Amino acid sequence: MGGVAGMRGRQTVRGMFQSLGVIMVAAGVMYLFIPHDEHADPVKVKDYRVELLTAQRAAPYPVLAPQGLGDGWKATVVSYKRENSDAWQLGFLSPDTQYVAIHQSTAEARTFAPKVSQGAKDTGRTETVAGQVWQRWEGPKYDALVRTEGGATTVVTGTASFERLTEMAGSLRAQKV
Predict the structure, then answer these.
(1) Count of CB atoms within 10 A of residue 158's CB?
(2) Can you say whether the dihedral through the CA atoms of 94, 68, 161, 143 is positive or negative?
(3) Where are the beta strands (DSSP E) in the chain?
(4) Distance CA 47, CA 75 (A)
(5) 82 to 73, 89, 113: CA distances (angstroms)
(6) 2-54 pLDDT tens trace
(7) pTM for the whole thing?
(8) How far apart are CA 177 and CA 173, in angstroms?
(9) What whole-number distance in Å separates Cα of residue 99 and Cα of residue 160?
(10) Using CA atoms, how far apart are residues 169 and 92, in angstroms rounded to an integer?
C-alpha cells in the first residue's frame, strides 16, 4: 500500500514543477512583450503642493513655482530650509530628461548662485524673460539664469539648454497664500 502513496506524492510534485514551468514561460513571454527600458531609473514624481504652501507661509520673500509648463515636466526634488537662508528648491526633469531647478534664498547672489549652479559664472549678459531681466550665468556642469528681487535671489539652473531654462523662468509665479 505504501508504494502507491509514494507514487502519488511524486506525481503531485512533478505536476507542481510542470505547472511552475508553464507559469515561468508565460511570465517570460509577457516580460518580452511589455516595453521597458533597462537604463531608465523609475523617476519618482513629487507632488510638491504641501511643501510649496509651507514655504510660502514661512519664507520672507515671494516663493516661486512654475505654472502652465507643458506636459512632460516631472517634479523630482523639493525642499525648504528656513535655517539655510530660507532656501527653497524645486527640481524637475524636463521633457528631454534634463535637470532644471528653481533655487531661491535670502543669501546674496554672488555666493548663492555659484553654489546652486555648481560653479557657474556671471557672463555679464542678460536675458529678458516675460518682461523680467535675468543675468545669464554659464558653467562647466550647469548654466543658470539669476535675478535678485523682493529680498530674494532666484536661480533657474540645471543641465538643460538655455531654451529650457528660459521656459522655466518664464513660467514662474508667486501664488500668495
Answers:
(1) 25
(2) negative
(3) 65-66, 74-81, 87-93, 99-105, 121-129, 132-138, 143-149, 152-158, 172-173
(4) 7
(5) 27, 12, 18
(6) 566 666 667 787 888 888 878 887 777 777 766 655 555 566 788 899 999 99
(7) 0.75
(8) 12
(9) 6
(10) 13
